[in-house]
Amino acid sequence: MAHPSRRMPLASLANAPNSPHRPLTNSGSKRPRSLANVSQQENEPPQKRLAVEKNEHPSKRVAVETKMRDTHPPVTPQRQPQPSVAEDRVFERGHGDSGSTAFQRKLVAARDKSAGLRVTKNVDLSTKEETIRTWQKHYRRLFPSFNFYFDGVSEEARSRFLRQIASLGAKEEKFFSKAVTHIVTTRHVPTDTKNANDADHPSPVEDHPQTINPSLLEKNPRGHMATNVRRDGMNQMDILVRGKEMGMKIWAAEKLQRVLGSILEDSAGHGHHARGSTHTTRHQHEDLGQVLRNEKLGTASEREQPFLSLVSFKGPFIYVHDMEEKYRPTMVREYPKVARRSDGEWPQFRSASVGKCPFVEDLAMKKEIEQERKRANLAAMQQQQQREQQAPRTRSHMTVQSTKADPPRRASPRKALGVVPNNTAMDVDVEKKDNRDHGAAERQSSFPPMPERPAFEFVRPAQLHMPREPAASGIQRSNLTSAIQSQMISSTAGTGVKAGTSKEVHHQLKRQVLERTHTGSLSVGSIPSSHRMNDLAGALKTVRAPAPQRAAKSKAQEKLGGIQEEGESHADDLAAERAMQSTRRKKVVKRDPKPGYCENCRDKYDDFEEHIVSRKHRKFAMTQSNWTELDALLSQLQAS
Amino acid sequence: MKLAKTAKGLLKGLAPKQSEQKTTKNSKTSKTSQTPNTSRTPRHVVLSPPDPRNRPLREAARRAAEAQRAATGKAAVIPGKRPRHDMGHPATAIAIHEDEDVSLRETRRLDKSATKEMVPPHSEEEDSVEGSCYSEESEDSEDDIDESVVEDMRKLEENFKGISQRYRLINRIGEGTFSTVYKAEQLPQPDEIDGPDENVEPADDSNPDMPPSKRRKTNAAVGMARRSRRKPQMVALKKIYVTSSPHRILNELELLHELRDSPYICPLLTAFRHLDQVVAVLPYFRHLDFRLYYRDFLVNDMRHYFRSLFNGLWHVHKAGILHRDIKPTNFLYDHSRREGVLVDFGLAERQGTDWQPCLCTEAKERRREKFLNSFAVQVLQTQPDLISTGYPKSDSRPSRRANRAGTRGFRAPEVLLKCTSQTTKIDIWSAGVILLTLLARRFPFFNSADDVDAMIEMASIFGRKKMQAVAAMHGQLFETNIETIGERGFTLDKIIIWASCREKDHESLRAGEAQAVSFLQGLLELDANKRLSAKEALQHEFFTAPVEDEEERAEREAQEALEEAEGTRRY
User: Hey, where are the domains in chain B?
Assistant: First the structure.
């Protein structure tokens, strides 16, 4: 076992102690040799391979393998006691796992990982990482020259392999021929070439099933490997035997799996080894991405895709993604970093007066707060100025000053309130007890202040009492692409706004008029806090908002204009605006084109009115056969 | 004051003659009384938050409108409501609203004809239950009709053969993503109906033709149908946009038809089609706009509201149907009758449509194992801080697909997570959002400009841990480092106390509220499997063993007394 000639190529060993030096020679100058090494390794007795696996897994293997693993031939315990001393040394994590199957170990590894044990156990991390990287580079270089022949591999596994090897540039040979460089088998690999002379005699340790008759195997799903038909001798006509004679490498399926896994996934997964060298890791990813792209790997497996190229998070983000990474992220959004979280653009609890959405900054309230603040500033400034120069100040001057000191901006209520002396911020912190495991990282969550009733008894525009009602959206039918869908959603948002706004604005306008005599100040509407310009719906809203507003406004004016005889006190206020009304009215009459999606024509349209008279649409409407089913129901309804 | 003459003229042109004169007269009446009233209201707001003590003042204001009010029976205030926690003053807002309504000629005419008996010529109390009259979704309460609406109605009447013989369109009362709803008067039908729309004829008589049980229910619950041969019946015409596929329309009408037997679901009277235009006819259901009352519902009111809502949901769910768009707009609630009906099944679907197994359908242990061994989890565990450092740049993987139809802010977590095996529980969540809205006195509670925002808002309440757990249920990883999303989140009690802006002495929930919150917890349960079903909800102690503290009882009794007084006076 520990025979030097059978030693595994270090390059393929993730955690060989001396690997940092070895791979250089191996991969560099001695390619053919290392190839040979690979085959050597392959032909080693299974125990050794297992030991290798055992070792490799905990350190760098990830999920796919876990899945593969459970269909692999179980490792019988009696094989375990035999690892050489050298192996023991190499596989630091090998001990303690004996008796378990690879799969079980896998699970253990996963558990270990989740428990955070892993990192602490890996001693010479950078060394290992170096090794892995070298090894990966090596294999990636070699892969394009490989031609695989699959022997007894299930269809499902084969197709998965195919995708993966294709991604690395290798090919499959459908028929056994000289072109084959590697045979991938689910059977046990015949004993190593070293013992070619005694190929018929399994090595002493291998007193267990080795191969089975391929004819039996062919139909066997790979999961049946556990029930290997025992064969003591090698059939000379066996593909494995012949392949070996022809100098082909014979890989167990799990070997290929392992190699692929190590090249593809572990290139990302081993990042944990390298706390201090993440940049190299990233480089690695990009490198791999490059490779994959060069291979024109359009439909690559779900596995490697995420690593094509990562957009790294810089600011606060939310990232909801599939556990198997089969789908693109369900949600991902990043927000600009901010010093104060209340400045963050993401939705968060804001100070909003009662009745209003707590996630939307309440401009009316903000205004109130700011006024308070200004007053405070003003007072402070006055004092200061009095101290500095005893000269009296004009009111306007002071206002200018205070405005300067307090530029209009999207100040957070929290911030603003900080200055308000009599504010009683109501911070509810339910998490203080809960800080143990997250320490500094623990976010302290708290509510922004809400107004106490007496503190904010300000005049509120009627419009604020009528929050707009969102319209339904999100229909997803099979014939819609997501692009269309988003279009549709945004278009409904547009119409929704129009529907909801006109009245609000109308109210607001009336109120505005009425209030002019009372207060003179007015806040207009509220802007969603999480307004993102790259959000289509949001952008659309912003774009479209003015139009209905305008429409409603002029309408309201018109209304107001129409009741002169009632002598409204503020009719004058509107006189000027009414003068401009006629021009505006024309615009109003011309309706906003309503974009959307027509399910019947399966077309997006820019203007509803235009679309529904289009030839295509009319044709649909006129085609009786489109309506037969519905008509049946209608007549039933009408009869009932 | 705000009569859009042009709009009106246009409409008149369209409207049948006989109603026209009435209309004109009415609007004049309203004009005069309305002006002073309206201008007074804002002052109200300034001066005082409404409060029972202010009642005399408000009443005085209202009396101004009395005469014409008598004719209209219009009043939109829920009685006995004392806006406890808000500075706002729902009453004033409502007053404005109400005044506008007053001048709405259609409403008036409607009231006259349809609800005459409930409106005594002389009513002292404006904010009567009766007043929860035919207030509409916002559009209808405008005293004028939007030009574009007039135009749309004209088009519909012109283009839809025969419709103008049967219905006189009055105003738009709702506009959705896939349809516009008009209020219309069903015209008395002479026996001759012309042309190809012959088949439509039954529409007018559809009520009489309905199965008796249904009709009764409709009449009772729907409150519209107090019709005599003479009196016009009000209906809601739902104009389904022609861009909707026949299949979608079929789906909606079919489901509605199937659910016709519940008094909690707005029945489909009939429907007809002209070319690609389909119009569904539903009874017009008297209700108040949610935005007028969400700020001052008593817990007791919530009980009635939700009992009705969950009865509706129970019926829908029992039939294996997901409504998918539960929200206040789609539950028309008549406060005076303590009854509501579910409307708009445009997004509804049968459970199991496009069903794909989602991780959430597996047993907990299996789920856990699969999750822990999943690729992304394994990868994540290799990350230094157990958090992803980035996301794929050019991602050609397919998107997860699932039906996520619904309204922003009301989508259940599993909808946001694109669960492929959604159940009727999504409606329960949405109902929970309504309750949250009422308890917190904030509408909308969630802004949720999109699903990402929705997720963040949800996470702001529930915290990262729970969001991670629910994402994991559906086979996903939830990661965020957004500061305002806490590890544990907040309890709903805290949220409600905070959001409803208690005065200092009310820093805790009152007994009834606490019970409502415990109910709410069953509704806003992130795990759909643990979330209450409609049936379970109805068995919750919130309904079966209501509690209230003294103050709450006092409020309730005051309200009831008021209603009773009005009731006796009015009937």
Answer: 5-136+558-562, 147-283, 297-382+406-540
| Angle between helices B550-570 and B511-523 in degrees, nearest 10 | 90
The whole-number average pLDDT for the span A23-44 is: 40
Classify domain B297-382+406-540 at the CATH class level.
mainly alpha
- pLDDT category, B301, cuts 50, 70, 90? very high
Contact A262, A14 (CB under 8 A): yes
Within B66-162, where are the H helices?
A: 66-72, 90-102, 105-115, 147-159
B392 neighbourhood in chain A, CB within 8 Å: 305-311, 328-329
CATH of B147-283, one of 3.40.50.790, 3.40.50.410, 3.30.200.20, 3.40.1160.10: 3.30.200.20
Higher local confidence (pLDDT), A37 or A386: A386
Confidence of residue A378 (pLDDT cuts 50, 70, 90): confident
Please answer whether residues A174 and A147 qualify as being in contact, where contact means their C-beta atoms are separated by less than 8 angstroms.
no
Cα distance between residue B106 and residue B185, in whole Å: 9
Q: Look at A640 and B483 and tell me if their CB atoms are within 8 Å.
A: no
Catalytic residue from among B143, B325, B344, B427? B325
Least confident of A157-171, A570-584, B64-78: B64-78
Shortest distance, CA B413 to any CA of chain A (angstroms):
12
Of B32, B241, B480, the CB nearest to A318: B480
Query: The tokens of B527 are what?
Result: 């795990």
* pTM of the model as a whole: 0.55
Task: Report pLDDT digits (tens) over B71-127.
Answer: 343 334 444 444 444 443 333 333 333 333 333 333 333 333 333 333 333 333 322
- Is there a contact between B31 and A566 (Cβ–Cβ < 8 Å)? yes
For A323, which of B247, B371, B446 is closest by C-beta distance?
B371
Is residue A501 within 8 Å of residue A549, measured between CB atoms?
yes
Cβ contacts of A502 on chain B, cutoff 8 Å: 146
Written as one letter, the residue type at A147 is N
In SS3 terms, B27-59 reads as HHHHHHHHHHHHHHHHHHHHHCCCCHHHHHHHH
pLDDT of residue A144: 82
Flag whether pLDDT at A392 surpasses 90: no
Is B325 one of the annotated active-site residues of the chain?
A: yes
Q: What is residue A129's predicted lDDT score, i.e. its pLDDT?
A: 67
Give me the mean pLDDT over the B165-192 stretch.
Answer: 86
- Taking the C-alpha atoms of residue B298 and residue B279, their distance in angstroms, rounded to an integer, is 38
Q: B132, A541 in Cβ contact below 8 A?
A: no
**Strand, helix or coil for residue A574:** helix
pLDDT, one tens digit per residue, over A317-326 is 999 999 999 9
Are the Cβ atoms of B291 and A460 closer than 8 angstroms? no
Give the helix ranges, DSSP H, for A236-340.
Answer: 239-245, 253-264, 266-269, 278-294
Most confident of A43-52, A457-466, B432-441: B432-441
Instruction: Determine whether the interchain pair A330/B418 forms a contact, defined as Cβ–Cβ distance below 8 Å.
Output: yes
In the 8-state DSSP scheme, what is residue B399?
A: P
Residue pLDDT, tens place only, A87-137: 344 333 434 334 444 444 544 454 444 443 333 334 445 556 666 777 777
Note whether A308 contacts B392, CB cutoff 8 Å: yes
Sign of CA pseudo-dihedral B374, B376, B381, B385: negative
Integer angstrom CA distances of residue B112 from B83, B125, B234 = 31, 18, 12
Query: Which of the two residues, B204 and B384, has the higher pLDDT score?
Result: B384
Site from B273, B356, B395 to mutate, A interface, most A CB atoms within 10 angstroms: B395
Tokens linked to B252: 């909606």
On the question of a cis peptide bond just before residue B444, with omega within 30 degrees of 0, the verdict is yes
Helix (H, G, I), strand (E, B) or coil at A581: helix
CA gyration radius, chain A: 37
